[in-house]
Every structure is written in C-alpha cells, then in structure tokens.
Design a protein that fits this description.
Layout: E1 4-6, E2 9-21, E3 26-27, E4 44-55, E5 58-62, E6 74-75, H1 79-85, E7 95-98, H2 103-106, E8 110-111, E9 114-115, E10 121-125, H3 126-134, H4 140-147, E11 153-156, E12 162-164, E13 167-171, E14 180-186, E15 189-193, E16 210-211, H5 217-231, E17 236-239, E18 249-254, E19 257-262
The structure holds zinc ion (ZN).
C-alpha cells in the first residue's frame, strides 16, 4: 500500500484485511457506471485497516482496523504486521484518533481484555462514546471491549479540536452520531481522513446513495456532500478508510461535471 504524501507529512496505510459489501447495502444505487469497482461475483470487496501518520516526533494512528476477525463480512488480523513492517511497535504510538466505534475501526484497541497501544491517548467523538458505550447501541460486548481502554480515552466534544499541530478534528456525523474526520495540513496541502463518510469511490459522484449502516442516512448524505464539495478546493485530498488500495481521491472540477482521480 502506497503512502499518501501531504506536504511534509507521510500517511502510511496499515492494511488489516478485507470486508465484503453487497450492492444492495447502498440504497438507491445504480452500478451501471461503476461496475469496475465490483468483483466478478458482484460484491464490493474493500480494504479495512487504519493509517499511520508521522507528525514531527509523534506517531499517530487513525483508526484501528477490525482485529483478528474472520466472519462472513470481515477477514482481518494483519494490522500489527503492517505496523511492524514499517518499523513501528505498539508502544511507539502516542496518539490515536478513531473516526467512529464500528467494529472495523476500533478492532485493535484491545486484545483479550488488555490495551494494545499502552502509551496512546485515544481520541473519540463524545457522541459515539455515549452511543456505543453508555447506551450500548451495538450491544454489551462492544461496550465492554471499549471500557477496557476507557482510561486512555479523551472525548472530542467540539468540531475543530486541535489534537496536534497540523492535525485537527472535523465533526462529520451521520454514519454514526459522533463520526469524526481528521484534517492534516502541511504547507499548501490538506488531507481529510474521513473514515466512513464515504464507502466507495462511486459515492464521490453519487453522494445521495445511502448506506445500510449509516445511523442517520439523511445527515450522512449531507455530510458526504459537504466533504465532496470541500474536496474540490485546490490542494485538498480526501482519504476514506475503505477506498481501493486505501488510497486518496482528488476531485477534478471540470465544466460543471464532477470527476475524480484516485491514488
Ligand atoms: Zn468501516
């Protein structure tokens, strides 16, 4: 997986495995123009994982994969190997930002009841913590796993929270109540790491397609549309978690027609 370069900052995708999505998870979708994104059996096989950001002396992890999970949707387990392959150990990570608390973004935070990244502060949207932990919206088990890391968690209450110099959060709710993107700025370039605000490149143009697991589908669509409009600004790249090759998109505004390139 190729690193994404933002000014002086290197963002390294950390591959954990894959998820299999089906086209009927995207409501109102027509795949005629997007067949190249589908596997031979008509499914959409997407990568899962996270991103390592080297920012000055800091080592930052954005999202924490699915973990050693093998079921009908997910086939994970390789994220720590991916981390070690670039010379980084779990204890080296000092900052984590989790876009949201679905299983494929918090999977490695704990293992067998112990914290995986012992020296990291874990930043999470306050509304997601309330939803998934306090209200146990995805069940007791998820809440219990997250309570293991509770003492390391710093809740994000405000849009535009500065986590580190050059790294600021952005409230992007809809997929989940506290879904949070991270904006990395270096020189004249900006990368918006946007978790699951978009699930596949087709949604860069088909922003109205709603996704099965968007908690508030109308809000998710508005958030997606705002992010894609922002992506049309000069020097701005969008990096969703599940794009092919875990790479970024650039929007190319041309004659009123929205086009994009990836990687
Ligand atoms: Zn996801």
């Amino acid at each position: 997986m190729q690193p994404v370069i933002v000014g002086d900052v290197v963002v390294q995708p950390l591959y954990d495995g894959t998820a299999v999505l089906t086209t009927d998870m995207f409501f109102g979708s027509d795949w005629t123009e997007h067949r190249h994104l589908l596997a031979d059996d008509g499914t959409l096989v997407v990568p899962v994982g996270g991103f390592l950001v080297r920012l000055g002396e800091h080592l930052v992890l954005l999202d924490a994969g699915v973990g050693d999970v093998h079921d009908t949707m997910f086939d994970g387990g390789r994220m720590l190997e991916s981390l070690h392959a670039v010379g980084v150990r779990e204890a080296d990570i000092d900052t984590i930002v989790v876009s949201h608390l679905h299983s494929d973004h918090m999977g490695w935070l704990e293992r067998d009841g112990a914290i995986t990244f012992p020296n990291a502060t874990i930043h999470v949207g306050a509304a997601d913590w309330r939803f998934f932990v306090d209200e146990q919206a995805n069940g007791k088990r998820r809440a219990e796993r997250l309570r293991v890391v509770q003492e390391h968690v710093s809740l994000i209450h405000h849009d535009g929270t500065a986590i580190l110099p050059g790294l600021v959060t952005r409230a992007t709710p809809g997929h989940t109540p506290g879904h949070t993107s991270t904006v990395i700025t270096s020189g004249a370039e900006r990368l918006i790491v946007l978790g699951d605000a978009l699930h596949c490149p087709a949604q860069l143009t088909e922003t109205e397609w709603e996704f099965l697991y968007d908690e508030d589908r109308a809000l998710a669509a508005r958030t997606r549309q705002a992010l894609v409009r922002e992506g049309e600004q000069t020097g701005t790249m969008l990096l969703p978690c599940h794009f092919p090759g875990m790479t970024f998109a650039r929007l190319l505004p041309m004659q009123g027609v929205r086009r994009w390139s990836i990687g």
